[in-house]
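Hey all, quick one. A colleague (J.T.) asked me to put the fe (iii) ion job into the tracker so the inputs and the structure tokens live in one place instead of scattered across chat threads. No bug as far as I know, just bookkeeping. Sequence used:
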Amino acid sequence: MNKVATVPAFKDNYLWVIHNDTHAVVVDPGDATPIIDFLSRHNLQLVAILTTHHHADHVGGVEALLDFCHVRDQIPVYGPANERIPARTHALVEGDAITELGITFDIIDVPGHTAGHIAYHAKKEGWLFCGDTLFACGCGRLFEGTAAQMQFSLAKLKALPPHTLAYCAHEYTMANIKFALAVEPDNVALQQRARTDAAKREKNIPTVPFTIENEIATNPFLRWDSPAVINAANIKARSQSGVSGINASNSTPVLVFAEIREWKNNF
Ligand code: ZN
Ligand code: FE
């Protein structure tokens, strides 16, 4: 029986260890130390490393982890084809599928945060490892991609089965919810989520994973078709430029998303 364990790292990163009590797969090991610690404590043998994008807080521990395992040639390091990933053995693009621990992961291209960012979708298990693309009630910053690319990437994740559990790489949830409430103060599902997630954080419980269904109801970066979000984006666009850029009749998902992303950058 496979399960997913949370390994906190740095200030607010989550590294993920998928394991069956004997063998383990690590997702986005930005730091090797807490992973080595976890593997040792639970007597787990590393069999593969999955990476979503090239940022150091996601791949910084790959080399040290391989050194620790001594059998570095036998451990595949999966990563996006279009990025530089240390020690990568398998270059992945959308349409590829890999199998580890009996779990099949479909690869989804999700450019925007970085140019080659990928996500891993375990369809049967209902798990998504999405790195810095989709966050709980938020999304990654556009460091290398455009708003149009990111909106298209998020639309793919939004279309996954509603009960899919998304494992993102950071605990940014409370700050994201604060922003989401500024966009949609009257969203009842969002108000409810603010209470639920605040209670978790008070007890230091991760708010990740989360369901796609809950994101669709509460995450302003997926709600480009919600009248309240379109309206808020329109008011923001008008106040920033003096020109009404978007409204219910001419709004496009990309325009709404771009406006909300820009708003959050300055929030
Ligand atoms: Zn990143
Ligand atoms: Fe990150």
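Adding what we noticed when we looked at it: Residues 53, 55, 113, 132 surround zinc ion (ligand 1) (CB under 6 Å). Residues 231 and 247 are 7 Å apart (CA to CA).
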